[in-house]
Fold each of these.
Amino acid sequence: MDTRERLIESTRTLLWERGYVGTSPKTIQRLAGAGQGSMYHHFAGKEELARAAIDRTAEEMRAAAEAQLSGPGAPLERIAAYLRRERDVLKGCPVGRLTQDPDVMAAPALREPVGETFSWLRTRLAEVVAEDDGGLDPAATAAAVVATLQGGYVLARAADSTEPFEQAIEGILALLGRA
């Protein structure tokens, strides 16, 4: 892995663990094993590096979701596979956690990939819901699924237990199954 990639991967890790404010260039450089000159050779500054890291995280999140949502099975089975896939629940969603970071939300360049990722996820889930003729409003259902998923992370982190997350997921799936 070259220096640019190490910087991006180190920033991704630190953003997920510490947020934007808690991620200093020195900490990024230390984790990446790169000098200050190397960082500024590849990126104009912390914001540009953070944007590259957020873009990468968002791309991976979309790819993982797409793998489940376009897989085999009925629409509800695919949504269930997506919601039940293995996750680091107690760390939270690496994109969702960025919404709680005021510096990310105040910087359009950093907020943009976060908003785009959630918009894509709601749209993609709505497409899957629309495949089923269950009478559900696809957009409203997709928004409820995403809200449940993100809220489940928050509840799990607050309780320091994956149980609230699992309950939220099973609850939304039960509601979807009854519709």
Amino acid sequence: MNNKNYLFGLLMVFLYNFLDAVKEVYSGFLVQDNHPLSITFIVFSIAMLFFQSYGVIFNRRNYVSTVRFFAPVVILNITTAGSWITFFYCMKCLEPAVASAIITGVAPLMIIFIAPMFFKNESHQYKAIYISGITVCCLWLALISLHQGRFIYNYSSSDVMAGVMMAVLCLQYLL
């Protein structure tokens, strides 16, 4: 492997992690004061303006041809909206760092369950160990959130449980 490509890939992963952390903190801040559906509407409006402008200005020839793929585009937008809505509700019901940790922890668990459908020759010996470890860590984070959230942030038990469920649903939309 080329060292420049390796370094570039490593920098892109670090950049993604940094930007994702900034997004988590900022969206957690926004959701604490505003309704999650309002924030989702604003996010989708900004994304729509950006992509519509890009399509008209830079990709005019292909812009009109996307009408042929109307159903996949609608399905993509519905699943994206579901992911964002559940993400924002999760951030509202849980402390943002805990919500992010649960979402990040559950994603590999979902991948482990889904991978055998696509990779038939893959060894499944490690599966039980990873699933057990990730599940224990996610439950541990949920219990910490339940305990800390009630006393520090005045979250009710039902808010915390709803937040954990929204974190899992958020990933279901992404996969």
